[in-house]
């Protein structure tokens, strides 16, 4: 089994040029506001309140970096990585110009941050074909490198019944269904992130 330990907040940055170089592989959490990015980081790291979450969309407004250690239980190997909690997109309660600035910062970061090895695209399991999620997939396809992976994570799976979950699996065979609230799918996700980073 893969475990994640010793997660710590490192720093926040406003845009790509302010981001420090940690010399470690990074995992970027992205998706619409309120989809559950910050909550998923907390579930993976088993630390409530590490990344700030809120029922009000638009909680995360900066690029937040966390360090964490992956432990491969069998091999007893430890590897350092960095988790990046990003502001969500589609948050309407700020002015047009602020929204445009966020969008620019986010796309610049996604394109330009060379340390990213895994993009975790979080999609609300109850709303799995929203236009802005499809736009994001197309946008990422334009610049993804061969050494980078995109994982599609369907969040808030606790809100779906069995047939709802089966529908997602039928539509997307690589779908990873998780619930930060009920801690389901979290171990599988740890394995997938580990594989994306180190294999
Ligand atoms: N039922 C359920 N609620 C969840 C789950 N994950 C997150 N939530 C709730 O969804 C809301 C948003 O969670 P956040 O983690 O703050 O979402 P975010 O994507 O970081 O949002 P922004 O920072 O605004 O982009 C909070 O009220 C969480 O408690 C889940 O697995 N199940
Ligand atoms: Mg957040």
From TrEMBL:
InterPro entries for this protein: G_ENGB_dom (IPR030393), GTP-bd (IPR006073), GTP-bd_ribosome_bio_YsxC (IPR019987), P-loop_NTPase (IPR027417)
Domain of life assignment: Bacteria
Pfam short name (any one): MMR_HSR1
Keywords tagged on the record: Cell cycle, Cell division, GTP-binding, Magnesium, Metal-binding, Nucleotide-binding, Septation
CDD domains: YihA_EngB
Cofactor: Mg(2+)
Residue ranges of domain EngB-type G in the record: 23-199
Ribonucleoprotein is among the record's keywords: no
Keyword Metal-binding: yes
Function: Necessary for normal cell division and for the maintenance of normal septation.
Name by which UniProt lists this protein: Probable GTP-binding protein EngB
Organism, as annotated: Campylobacter magnus
């Amino acid at each position: 089994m893969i475990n994640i330990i010793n997660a710590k907040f490192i720093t926040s940055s406003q845009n790509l040029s302010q981001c420090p170089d940690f010399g470690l592989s990074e995992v970027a959490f992205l998706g619409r506001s309120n989809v559950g990015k910050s909550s998923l980081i907390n579930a993976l790291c088993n630390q409530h309140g590490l990344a700030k979450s809120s029922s009000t969309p638009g909680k995360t407004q900066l690029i937040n970096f966390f360090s964490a250690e992956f432990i491969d239980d069998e091999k007893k190997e430890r590897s350092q990585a960095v988790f990046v909690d990003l502001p969500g997109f589609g948050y309407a309660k700020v002015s047009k110009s602020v929204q445009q600035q966020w969008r620019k910062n986010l796309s610049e970061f996604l394109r330009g941050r060379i340390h990213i090895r895994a993009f975790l695209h979080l999609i609300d399991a109850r709303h799995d074909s929203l236009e802005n999620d499809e736009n994001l997939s197309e946008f990422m396809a334009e610049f993804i490198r061969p050494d980078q992976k995109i994982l599609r994570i369907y969040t808030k799976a606790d809100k779906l019944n069995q047939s709802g979950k089966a529908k997602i699996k039928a539509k997307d065979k690589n779908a990873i269904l998780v619930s930060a609230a009920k801690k389901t799918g979290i171990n599988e996700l740890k394995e997938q992130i580990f594989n994306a980073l180190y294999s």
